[in-house]
Write a structure and sequence with these properties.
Layout lengths: L1 H26 L9 E7 L2 E5 L15 E4 L2 E8 L6 E3 L6 E4 L4 E4 L5 E4 L5 E2 L5 E2 L5 E3 L9 E5 L4 E5 L7 E5 L2 E3 L7 E4 L2 E3 L8 E3 L8 E4 L1 E3 L5 H33 L4
Antiparallel strand pairs: 1-4, 2-3, 5-20, 6-19, 7-8, 7-11, 9-10, 12-13, 13-14, 15-18, 16-17
Helix pairs in contact: 1-2
Length: about 260
């Protein structure tokens, strides 16, 4: 009976983690560039009471073994880097990525992080930064009094200065891709960091080498699907109830066994 209780307890813990992940997905339904997570599970080790193919005393071979599973464990949480819907904002500093790629962000400690959130702002010196004030790489600074800020699909940034007829080219935005984006480490604040699992960043210009294009005046919404998450929530709730029932039944069976009298 104790084995069934411990096995069921692992199931309840797994469903609790499943519910935690669903809650985080739903909480970020309005987070720009957010990528939903999916929990993956694996069964635990098995207690083998009889190996398959064992011969009995009469020489017959057992066609199947006798194994008892010991529960379940979370194997990992995978980020689904599926394109979110693009919403028009008419803000020239909102730069959505249509296709693959991420922006490079310079962190205060000198490291580089990556994001799909293209809702940028201007710092006090005209540098393009994130909502948290982190600088976008490569650095692009807008001169004071500039007009007609434009970003083309291939990432070229240009402005028109008062009195000039020709626009000034300020640089070109770069995008980064990873062979395994699911291996990136979440830092919070819509930022990711590289790991050994993600592989090295592949830097290219937009619309080149498989990278996506830039859409100025658009923001990428979260790729969370409310209906799918609600269905997953109901599934997790029912599974939790059923597994908890297994613990209750095991306790009742153990109680009955303890109350047996000769």
């Amino acid at each position: 009976m104790m084995r069934s209780m411990m096995t069921a307890a692992t199931g309840m813990e797994a469903q609790q983690l499943y519910m935690d992940t669903i809650s985080n997905n739903l909480s970020n339904i309005n987070t720009n560039g957010f990528k939903r997570s999916k929990v993956e599970f694996q069964d635990l080790m098995y207690q083998t009471l009889r190996e398959p193919g064992v011969r009995n005393f009469e020489g017959g071979m057992a066609p199947a073994g006798l194994e008892v599973g010991l529960g379940v464990k979370p194997a990992g949480t995978q980020r689904i880097f599926e394109q979110g819907s693009l919403n028009q904002t008419e803000n020239p500093l909102d730069l959505a990525i249509q296709g693959e790629g991420m922006y490079q962000i310079l962190m205060p400690d000198g490291s580089v992080a990556y994001t799909r959130d293209g809702s940028f702002k201007l710092s006090s010196d005209g540098t393009i930064v994130t909502s948290s004030g982190f600088q976008v790489l490569p650095q692009v600074s807008i001169p004071q009094g500039a007009q007609g800020f434009q970003v083309t699909a291939d990432g070229r940034v240009s402005v028109l200065m008062p009195g000039d007829e020709m626009s000034i080219d300020l640089g070109q935005i770069e995008l980064v891709r990873f062979i395994n984006p699911s291996g990136l480490k979440s830092l919070g604040g819509n930022l990711f960091a590289t790991t050994d699992a993600s592989g090295l960043p592949v830097v290219s210009y937009p619309a080149e080498e498989g990278a996506g294009t830039i859409m100025q005046g658009y923001s990428e919404a979260s790729n969370v699907r409310i209906v799918d998450e609600m269905v997953s929530m109901i599934t997790a709730q029912r599974a939790f109830e059923i597994v908890s029932k297994a613990i209750q039944v095991s306790e009742e069976m153990l109680q009955m066994a303890n109350n047996l009298k000769r």
